[in-house]
Amino acid sequence: MNSLIKTPPANFFIRSAPLLLGAALILAILASLCIGVYPVSFTRVMQIIGALAWPSPLPDDVPWTLKEQTVVQVVRLPRVLVATLAGVGLGLAGAALQGIMRNPLVGPDIVGVSSGAACGGVLAMLFSLPAVGVVGFGFAGGLLAMTCTTFLSRLIRKSGGETLVLVLAGIFVGAFFTALIGIIQYTADSHTQLPSMVYWLLGSFVGANPSKVAMIAIPTLGGGALLMLLRWRLNLLSLNDLDASALGFNVARLRWGVIFLVSLIVAAQVSACGIIGWVGIVVPHLARMITGPDHRRVLPVSAMLGGGLTLLMDDLSRTMFSQEIPVGLLTALVGTPFICFLFWKTQTRGWNEQ
After folding, report:
1. pTM of the predicted model, to two decimals?
2. Contacts made by residues 245-251, CB under 8 angstroms, sequence distance 24+
3. Tens of pLDDT along 134-169?
4. What is the CB neighbour count within 10 angstroms for residue 314?
5. Which of 99, 171, 270, 342 has the highest local Cβ count within 10 Å?
6. What is residue 71's DSSP assignment?
């Protein structure tokens, strides 16, 4: 009887988790607009955002100053949006990859997608291509890296356990594309191109502007919407290919479709702000701790948690240190201990007992 009484609140929380986390993410975005070297009150931020959302002729005696409007609208708002969208995309990409590969250690940076996208982006920067070219080259590099990882994992599957096959293949492919990045940097101009390449690869939201918001928003929201439409099919792929095929699904087509969307999302993120590591592998596990293994809820919760995590890391990088630290370094500091614990847990207890 006690278990029957306790079950409904838990189920209600799980069903409501995406909405609750979405509301928390909106509050986090507004709070991030308040903090910085020049603090702005929450009331002023709400007034400025309200004026931007519902434009109308403003009176001469607006309650905020020009400096406050410039800080919120021009400096912080694009950066906060880019940081949030980057985390949303990485959370979705990581959850989708772990679902289709049935592997808890898979993530965009682990399987080489981030390295491939970074290689394509650096190559575009070497040729001084515009932002569209950086996204295009990044997408091609990410898709090529994921393809190489998939086929290589099939070759080495007989030499290792199922759980570690994709990890090993991703390490090999990621190392190859990292070497290509080094070669491109070696041939780049050391005065004009190399410094921007190095800082970009560290992962940072410095210099965010409306064009970067559009660069990351269109692929992330478009590809993310398609992944959300496919989220119930990911539950079938989480079982095995034979059961999914028996239900009439083309498993190979579905898997490659998800890989295509993941590569597009990661390429947009890398092109806009460099490599933000570990978010795509850490966030899906946190989401499963909240909702369980059902991808209908794991994907939206991963998106909200990913956006919140990158936003938090960006807030720390620009407020806690006298000199701003690239966000990619902070996410690596947080994610590395977590993945070590996860690796130990999966080796000792198994994926199904997480």
Report:
1. 0.88
2. none
3. 888 988 998 899 889 888 887 876 554 555 677 788
4. 28
5. 270
6. I
